[in-house]
Amino acid sequence: MNIQELHTVFLKYPSVSTDTRNINKGDIFFALKGENFNGNTYAKKALEQGASYAIVDEEEFIQNDRTILVDDCLTTLQQLANYHRKFCSAKIISLTGSNGKTTTKELINAVLSSTYKTVATKGNLNNHIGVPLTLLSITPDTEFAIVEMGANHLEEIAFLCYIAQPDFGYITNFGKAHLEGFGGVDGVIKGKSELYEYLIKQDKSIFLNADDPIQLNKLKSYTRKYGFSTENSSYYKIEFLGAQPFVRLKFDDTEATSNLIGSYNFHNCCAAVIMGKYFNVDVPKIKQSIENYTPKNNRSQIIENLDHYIILDAYNANPTSMKAALENFNTLDRVNKITILGDMFELGNSAEEEHQTVVQITEQMNFDQVMFVGENFYRTKTALKKFKNFDKLKQYLTEHSVPKKSTILIKGSRGMALERVLDHI
């Protein structure tokens, strides 16, 4: 069965699943493989649970005429997504960057969905599997698809662009993330800029943060760009009004107060504003969309109860985002400030240096308590409290209760799962 024929089947059953734990009736199941599993072994179960078809790439797992044999399930999923993307009329907005991708994507979707029919990447499903799944969620009436693209090595963004073929693009920033895979900051810049390279080659429109000298320099000779700035009069002006603790901004003589903490979220809001303006969303709707968006999934969440005021930012961490979070926390006008910081992952040979730098930054700030957790932080040189693993931190918190009415920043990489701290403070 070729891709065109498979797409005809997909139009009849326009829902895809790669996991038998969440199969819905009528789904087309793709038997993907991973390091520790072979999806082909679940094809029979998928059909029994109501899947319309199962796509397999090993002949021995053919069950009946509802099983479709292909050369490679992942490649077929990607080809089907690319075919469907070209079949539909929706405009594709792709975004990548080192920090803030998911929050920015959610803000853009909030703004555009106030006026248009949109779909957007669910959560952070932004890789070679997640991007195809997002594209396959586009329906005939979808006007915009906001597609988040993640990468931890060179040529990955270029490949995702090949699949999604975006009409518009935005890069949040270039920071110290996935240094191990990219081989350093220069590699990060080169890898993320693959989105620019695709859009320029295709003569498509680019949104940019004109306050970022890297973006400004890379796009200085490109004409199809639309940017925002706090100072540069050549671009749409957005004013930063502060973040105590929530980001406030002003555009078109309109002030908006978000539910996002930290000045580092200002540019994420700006990206949503600039796209709303470009696509003719009414300013009152832009304001309302930004003010109504509430972060979740451990991303800069505010948890306020009778005991503490907690900033839970435990979804991810890298040197750039860690520094920004600490600087913002340091500016908050609150009492009894406590930081609990977990290891940053995927830093390769830079891990020791980058963790020590975070320690030094923290030492220069006047926090009431600091706790580092994880093997990388444990190896740093500091007089501040440090714990080799979460169990050691848990033991300490059990024996030493956190003072009431504390303001607590919790931040670390996803693998540290620092949201577990909430059960012990």
TrEMBL record:
The Mur ligase C-terminal domain extends over 299-413
Record keywords, A-Z: ATP-binding, Cell cycle, Cell division, Cell shape, Cell wall biogenesis/degradation, Cytoplasm, Ligase, Nucleotide-binding, Peptidoglycan synthesis
| Root EC class | ligase
| Pfam family name, one | Mur_ligase
Which positions fall inside the Mur ligase N-terminal catalytic domain?
15-63
Return one GO MF term: UDP-N-acetylmuramoyl-tripeptide-D-alanyl-D-alanine ligase activity
According to the entry, every stretch annotated as the Mur ligase central domain falls at 96-275
Query: Where does the secretion signal sit in this chain?
Result: none
Q: Where in the cell is it found?
A: Cytoplasm
Which positions in this protein are listed as binding ATP?
G97, S98, N99, G100, K101, T102, T103
> Where's it mainly located?
cytoplasm
Q: What is the reaction catalyzed?
A: D-alanyl-D-alanine + UDP-N-acetyl-alpha-D-muramoyl-L-alanyl-gamma-D-glutamyl-meso-2,6-diaminopimelate + ATP = UDP-N-acetyl-alpha-D-muramoyl-L-alanyl-gamma-D-glutamyl-meso-2,6-diaminopimeloyl-D-alanyl-D-alanine + ADP + phosphate + H(+)
Q: In which pathway does it act?
A: Cell wall biogenesis; peptidoglycan biosynthesis
Entry's EC annotation: 6.3.2.10
Cite the InterPro entries for this sequence. Answer: Mur-like_cat_sf, Mur_ligase_C, Mur_ligase_C_dom_sf, Mur_ligase_cen, Mur_ligase_N, MurCDEF_CellWall_CoF430Synth, MurE/MurF_N, UDP-N-AcMur_synth
Functionally, this protein is described as follows: Involved in cell wall formation. Catalyzes the final step in the synthesis of UDP-N-acetylmuramoyl-pentapeptide, the precursor of murein.
Q: Which PANTHER family match?
A: UDP-N-ACETYLMURAMOYL-TRIPEPTIDE--D-ALANYL-D-ALANINE LIGASE (PTHR43024)
Which family is this protein grouped under? Belongs to the MurCDEF family. MurF subfamily.
Q: What is this protein called?
A: UDP-N-acetylmuramoyl-tripeptide--D-alanyl-D-alanine ligase
Q: Which organism is it from?
A: Maribacter confluentis
